[in-house]
Amino acid sequence: MDRYPWELPERLGLRIELGERTQAHRDMRRLLRLMTEQGPTRFEVRKYRCAVALSRCCNGARRGGAASDSLLELFWKRFEELTQLRSWKTVQRHMHRFVDELLDRVRPEGRSKIEGIVAWIREDLEHTLDSPKTLTEYADEAGVSRVYLSRFFPMIVGRTFREEQQRVRIEMACKLLRQTALKVGVIARRLGMRDPSQFIAVFRRATGLTPAAYRRRHLETG
Fold first, then answer.
1. Are the C-beta atoms of 189 and 130 separated by less than 8 Å?
2. Which of 29, 69, 120, 181 has a CA between 20 and 30 Å from the CA of residue 93?
3. pTM above threshold 0.90
């Protein structure tokens, strides 16, 4: 049995914020399914959890540019309707209809800057490897909280910030090893790693080869 995914309502909000209709309905189906797999949970408890999801979805639509006043009116209307429903099937239909209503109100030009922030971070990572920034520093520069950024970064990229930073570092290391004759120690410093032995260990974990072996293999096959 799956653990109840308390993070799913937050992700639903992000899907709506970004206008991702297919993914939003997929996450909603999973959320509703898991609500029925938590053992003998009372119907009213399930509806309470649905109300939490309604709120998170509204927050996403608001960040996505939907008008706050109309969202509030819609939320209370759908919340009141939810309390009156008497079967799980009608609750499920109600929740999916609500997702569509919110997505119809999201304006692409008014969406929050989270996608742009993440794209900026990924581009900046390539240019700041010699003096890498922390996620907190990026969050401060972007004017968002570190918690918010750390939560949504992997949802958009598919990797955590640290994993993405490491991926970029290894990718740049491979490029420098192939295209230059720089010594391993120099490459390590360019990638923000002052200890060459640490760089060698990290590179080997990622590629299965030492930097020197990677360079030889490339020269032999190139």
1. yes
2. 69
3. no
